[in-house]
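fold description:
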Amino acid sequence: MPEIQPPSKVKPLLALVAVLVVAFVALYAFFPKFRASLPFSKKVAEPTQTVVPTAELPKKFPANLPLTKASVVVHNFETTNDQGATQSVRKWESVETPDHVKATYAEFFAKNGWEIVTQVDQPTLHILAARHDKEFMSVSIHPTPKGTGSLIEVTVK
């Protein structure tokens, strides 16, 4: 006598999934309010970047910020996001050694009331990050590709 197989649950499950997919596509296509509420459909405004002349410091940079000797500015700009928050960046090349530049900034932070919150010391990288009131500054120091000085990038938020 042939054995009776129980009914398969796969076909009804596939049908249910297909109905749910069709319902979701219909909601997405015909109801803009639903579409706008989905997290992946939100458009994020691109930040605006403003180039600052190399003779000037970007906004938020302390006027007494040490820039080191024989500096050649590589980048100098400000970025503003859609909420109005500004980040200022200045990158330059100096003839001073990375260790000397790091010591200069550590001294600057100590003398001006900045609290160092991060310090990284690697053979090819020094990073100092500090905060003062509501401002945050990070200093990244690399040896130049020629190995005769430093490449310094300061970001102030």
